[in-house]
Amino acid sequence: MTTAADLYASHRELLERAITAAAARDYWSAFPESPSKSVYGEDAAPAGERAFAALLGKPFPVDVPGAAGTVSTERSPYGIELGVSYPKADPLALVAAARAAIPSWRAVGPEGRAGIATEILRRINARIFEMAHAVQHTSGQAFVMAFQAGGAHAQDRALEAIAYALAATTRMPARSAWSKPQRGGDPLSMVKTGTVVGRGVALVIGCTTFPTWNSYPGLFASLVTGNPVIVKPHPGAVLPLAITVQICREVLTEAGLNPDVVTLAAEEPGDGIAATLATHPDVRIVDFTGSSEFGDWLEANARQAVVYTEKAGLNTVVLDSTGDYRGLLRNLAFSLSLYSGQMCTTPQNILIPRAGIETDDGHRTPEQFGADLATALDKLLGDPKRAAGTLGAIVNDAVLARLTEAAGSPGVVHPSAEVTDDQFPGATIRTPVLLRLDAADEKTYTREWFGPVSFLITTDSTEHSLRVFTETVRAHGALTALVHSTSPEVLAAAREAALDAGVHLSENLTGGVFVNQTAAFSDLHGTGANPAATASLTDDYFVSGRFFTLQSRHHV
């Protein structure tokens, strides 16, 4: 039997490298993002596709404590039949099983838990092509994006969380000697031990759009800090997290540990199992990605738990001026189109002064800018094959309904169009819609339009744009912001506005870095400074809120 200590020893070099990378914040990746034969091997891609196909139309092989019956809830946005069923969870049985697993998991210690977690990651990476197909056909991401965001990048984020958690839980020595000199006598001598104790049962509530990328940080941070985890996937995207839980339980069992350290909570839509679990007195940590409405409910009602939420918001672009107009248009068009805007980081509100902006291609009025951005979108998405690979597919009817509503509104600058994918004729693919508004139309643009819907909003001036940006983000939240300006004074003012609003800021992006993409081990994703999120997903609080260190001491 390979023990947790053995696994830590085998992965120690990787873990130390990850801790160093997280501290340096430079570029580093442990898992290759290219689905290339030269990287993963000649047979990796076809083997992964065969493994995915073998899962379809049958019960998924994973044990769930207290399961009663099965559920089958997923529909591929690409139109293929999935038909995978999962054991239906009894929430009370899941909590009881997780609670029973705490003592043995605590006894493994931080290094052993990090070794187990890293071995889980290694095995997830070995199934990356299978995982990519699972992510593609539940989330609607195009395959390459699913391979990168749902595979390699999600695994990097998991490793970053493991590194943060290991560093935090080993900062205090597990054993120390204490000696206090005494006048005229022997010193007072004691031995003191510090034990990392998890907060309790952890709950990870997944989303449809990024089931692994958004769930892995909380899952792995909780595991390394000593907490058993119940994984509650969105009913529309169960398979990627079911594969994850299957691997977790496999590794735990092989290491001689209780597999109920990680369990799966699949449900029918409307069962409300997330609310039941999140408010259970033994559930002490909740990680949630999804709608602002349910995120707000969790923060208000799961009072016994530490709640980490990542909600969406009014991601904003402030346009003032640019020295690379064509680069700006290319970059922004791609940001609006990537995965059909179904990212919590996609820009929604684009603010432009009524008098227009100065560029290296001359002055541009708001009308001219809107026409130029529409042309850039058409150029990017003109070829159906390239468009399908960029846009992916619409994940659910709610996104499609918002798109339809926006497309029927006045002020359309760029209409949405259907795209046909020859490989998946049943896929639901749409290009973005761009609408023109005035800053006075607050009721429209202060509402979140998750999906391929963006607004070009005319303001009185750049100063007014920054004021609108600050006020809307402080009130409604955001995860990203972007400013374009050639003026040092405007850039300085934008930085101050972002700090006041509590949101991460990107400046003058015209190349291969996009506002809606973040890099593990370098970029912070999410923020605790506005209503869209309660913690950066890899900051100190995200880890430190998951455990305590308890001390025991005795005389020598």
From TrEMBL:
Transmembrane segments: none annotated. GO terms for biological process: L-proline catabolic process to L-glutamate. The keyword Amino-acid biosynthesis does not apply. This is Oxidoreductase. Keywords: NAD, Oxidoreductase. InterPro entries: Ald_DH/histidinol_DH (IPR016161), Ald_DH_C (IPR016163), Ald_DH_N (IPR016162), Aldehyde_DH_dom (IPR015590), PaaN_2 (IPR011975), Proline_metab_enzyme (IPR050485). One of its GO terms (molecular function) is L-glutamate gamma-semialdehyde dehydrogenase activity. Gene3D superfamilies: Aldehyde Dehydrogenase, Chain A, domain 1 (3.40.605.10), Aldehyde Dehydrogenase, Chain A, domain 2 (3.40.309.10). Residues 92-496 form the Aldehyde dehydrogenase domain. One of its GO terms (cellular component) is cytoplasmic side of plasma membrane.
